[in-house]
Amino acid sequence: MNNYELRISTFLKNACKLWILAGMLLLLFFGSSIFFKQGNVTIGHFCIATFFLVGGFLMLIGANRWKIYVTEEEITIQFILKKRKTLTFSQIEKVEIDTHKNLRLFSSGKKIITIDCYTTNYSLFIKDLKSKGLQIEYKV
């Protein structure tokens, strides 16, 4: 088994970039409307444009920060807002896959993380969990 990373899909990252682009275009459009004295542009229009721009940037930063690094013995999870957590495969008590094919890992009776099925290297991670002898529960 090689070391590898699970990362958020490029589709989501591209969606974040579209939010940023939409915010910039809205700001440009509303700014030009004021400059050329056309239409009734209010502060609310700029708030909406700023929401798209800032929201897109924050989501893109979060998408680039989140990752799971898998080695032969352990899994290191880099959350978006929480501290990094490292656990061994033996610490994982339960593995579930829900109806939307999202993977949930449990340790010490608590859910550690939910991994979306569109995450890169998702199927490789499931294969590694099975090879380590962990039983996967399928929720209906």
Describe this structure in words.
- This protein is 42% helix and 25% strand.
- The strands form 2 sheets. It has a 4-stranded antiparallel β-sheet with strand order 1-2-3-4. It has a 4-stranded mixed β-sheet with strand order 7-6-5-8, with helices on one face.
- With 140 residues, the protein is of the alpha+beta class.
- A hairpin with a 6-residue loop joins β3 (74-78) and β4 (85-88).
**What would the average pLDDT be, to the nearest integer?**
92
Secondary-structure content class: alpha+beta
As a percent range, the share of helical residues equals 40-55%
Reported for the largest beta sheet, the result is:
4 strands, antiparallel
* Rg, Cα atoms, Å: 21 Å
- The tally of strands reads 8
Indicate the proportion of strand residues.
25-35%
End-to-end separation:
31 Å
What is the approximate shape?
Answer: elongated
Weakly predicted, low-confidence segments: none
Strand order of the largest sheet: 1-2-3-4
The helix tally amounts to 3
What string gives the helices and strands in order?
EHHEEEEEEHE
